[in-house]
Amino acid sequence: NKLLDLLKTAQDNEPTNASLYYAEGNVYLKFNDFEKAIAAYQKSAQIDPNYFWAYFSEGKAYYDQAVAIQEQANMESDDNKYLALLDKLDKSLESSISPLEIAFSKADDQELKAYVAELLKNVYFRFRDKSEEYKANYEKYNSFLQK
Known about the structure:
The protein is mostly helical. It has seven helices and no strands.
């Protein structure tokens, strides 16, 4: 909480410093306060629409949440609970797409761009049978990574 207080003070002093809101999001994520983390990442992106880390962190948070849900689903023996978890998993993955797409477009570093492409490829792979758009995006990122 002291760290959050320090970040709030810094944000009051530098309200246009997107990295302070990004840092706040990271703190909330460590505290498992997912909603506040997402809000902080979105605030960071609002302050600086070109700030790669805001979009990446939001998308990665949703992606990581989906991975955790998948692990939970793999352990579930009740079919109804399993299906509910899969629905939650899909929603989390779908929520990761937009911020990861923006992060991909803003990444200057090729290793970061490749990492984001790998995440997007994985997401689109899961949804490739849902629509031609998802399938095309899977192929786009798969092709990018093969180059």
